[in-house]
Amino acid sequence: MTGASPKKRMMSSQLPVAVLLLLSAVAGAADEATVTAISGDTGEREPLLTVVPLYPEKARRARVEGEVQVCFNVSRSGKTSRVAVRRSTNRVFEKTSRDAVRASTYRPLAANKELSGIKTCRTFRFHLSPVAIELPEQAPG
Amino acid sequence: MSILPLQWLPLALVAAGLWLVSAGANAQQNTTVLGPSNQDLYAGANALLAGDAEEGVRLTLAGLKHEGRGRDRLTGISNLCAGYIMLEQLNTALTYCDQVIEENENHWRAYSNRALAYVMLERYEEAEQDLQKAEAIADNARTVKIVRSMLLDATDPVAPQIVIDDRRQPEKEDDE
Fold first, then answer.
1. Model pTM?
2. Fold of the CATH domain B6-147
């Protein structure tokens, strides 16, 4: 298991004003996502920079959770290409997942190793966990 | 008092002001009409949409002095509710929202704005009741959904969790 990875903000510039106002208000909350990275038998390529997708604000507001598997090629230098969603439970998570993979990199392949044509896949699971509310103290009766 | 960041507040006026502004814009496009019938109400709505709550409320109050009855007047009152929410004068805002709802029980914008005021006052049960009414009338309205999420964030906050799984996953066999 590896630790949390660097984050990268991705925002659409074509959102209506109302949504922009909303996003600016909650961007801080979105940045505080807890990240868990699971490695293991990941094939021959080792991740170098893993970019974490943003939890889409639209999904968070609507309390939507989901999962996306993205498959892609990794070049000899470690760049990702031909990034495509293989399966997804909700389209709202697809763009942020693709963008995260496109911005991620792998360790360059050693000179004595051959480049495999096998695609690499990464699965993102988007969850929402309840946060305890601190209740106000009751006024003495 | 407020549990919400100030950036949320213009959402309320977006809910209230759009109709008035669009009415003015349409009038300007029509060569046979010189402009909005009530310049103060129109300017007030624009000021609110621009985030200038004080000017928006001032102009809207001025506009309402010359407005008898009808849709423009009701929209102006609804905008006052939004404007006072922006100014965080929530009890004043409630009186204007109440007035709109008294005159038109299907005014979903007023229910939505009043729900927002209730959320900010931490009167969550009343906010829930108003949101249910707004949703019954305008289920797909974006502002209603936003206020719903604000209520949820206040009563049932959630934190995003993202799991990145790089393990190879076996191919799923098709179900027979």
1. 0.65
2. 1.25.40
Q: How far does CA B160 lie from the centroid of its chain?
A: 26
CB of A96 within 8 Å of any CB in chain B?
no
Which residues, including other chains, have CB under 8 Å from residue B149's CB and lie 6 or more apart? A60, A61, A62
The contacts of residue B45 (CB under 8 Å, 6+ apart) are B13, B16, B17, B20, B21, B24, B56, B60, B75, B79
**Residue B14 touches partner A, C-beta closer than 8 Å:** yes
A17-126: CATH, from 2.30.30.240, 3.40.309.10, 3.30.2420.10, 3.40.920.10: 3.30.2420.10
| CB spacing of B167 vs A25 below 8 angstroms | no
ipTM of the predicted assembly exceeds 0.90: no
Nearest chain B residue to A47 by CA distance is B166
**For residue range B58-72, what is the model confidence (pLDDT) as tens digits?**
999 999 987 666 778
